[in-house]
Structures are given as structure tokens and as C-alpha cells.
Design brief:
By secondary structure, the chain is mainly alpha-helical. The chain contains 6 helices and no strands.
Length: 142
């Protein structure tokens, strides 16, 4: 059996729908991050020109490659790819807080913001035409 990134996002939304305690909030963010990470991997692999940058681990490497896309891509594609890097970085930081910083409070708003960011990642990575205006992650506004 295989699992698609959208299935992981659906799982995150299911957890969010019944989340009442902090551990639920953290679990939803974990699933949302991995859904987004795998969606961004698929997006990146489908680009006609790839940048090949290094990072400390595969997650960091993917974010770096999205943040600094190939100059051969159209301006619109570069803008979209850079936006995905920003959103994925925001969500990665939220996931690290959710998974590792158990002494830090993790509230309902952090979960909601993270799920919004994940949905934005799926939206941006699914659209290939049109400009991204006023790109700002909900997490950056928190």
C-alpha cells in the first residue's frame, strides 16, 4: 500500500477536527508538516531545471533547493518555488517545536496556523499559472 501527500494532509485535518488537548495539536502539526514536505519533494522533482544545493539533512536540502531555484526557471516559477521554501520553513519550525520542545506550550492557534500553512503549500504547489501576491505565511504573522 502507498500513501500520497494529500492523504497525510487529510489525516492532519482529521486530527485537527477532534483535537482537544495539546498532544492532539502537536500530532496534527506533525502530519501537516510531513504532508507538505512530501508535496514539496514532488513539486521540486517535477521542475524542468533543478538547483542542487546541500543542506544538513534531506529536509534542509529540500528547503534550500526551493529557496534558491534555478535561474533557468521562469520568474513566476522562481517566485512560486521561493514561496514554497518560506512556507515549508515556517511549518518545519512549527513541527520541530511540536515534536521536540515538549516543555514549550503548544496551543490551538499554533495548530490552526500550521494547518493553514500546509493548505497554502498544497495550493501554491498545485497552481502553475498566475502570480503570487503578498506572500505571507500565517505562522509569520503569529
Amino acid at each position: 500500500m502507498t500513501c500520497a501527500p494529500l492523504s497525510l494532509l487529510d489525516a492532519a485535518k482529521k486530527i485537527q477536527g477532534c483535537a482537544v488537548v495539546e498532544s492532539d495539536f502537536r500530532a496534527a502539526v506533525n502530519r501537516a508538516y510531513y504532508a507538505s514536505y512530501h508535496r514539496c519533494r514532488t513539486y521540486y522533482a517535477a521542475l524542468p531545471y533543478l538547483s542542487v544545493l546541500k543542506g544538513n539533512g534531506v529536509h534542509e536540502q529540500l528547503i534550500n533547493n526551493l529557496k534558491f531555484p534555478s535561474g533557468k526557471l521562469s520568474d513566476n516559477c522562481q517566485e512560486r518555488t521561493e514561496a514554497l521554501a518560506k512556507y515549508l520553513r515556517d511549518l518545519c519550525m512549527a513541527r520541530a517545536l511540536a515534536d521536540y520542545d515538549l516543555d514549550e506550550e503548544f496551543d490551538l492557534k499554533k495548530m490552526q496556523d500550521s494547518l493553514l500553512t500546509a493548505e497554502l503549500i498544497f495550493e501554491v504547489s498545485s497552481t502553475t499559472k498566475g502570480k503570487i501576491d503578498d506572500v505571507a505565511s500565517p505562522l509569520a504573522q503569529a
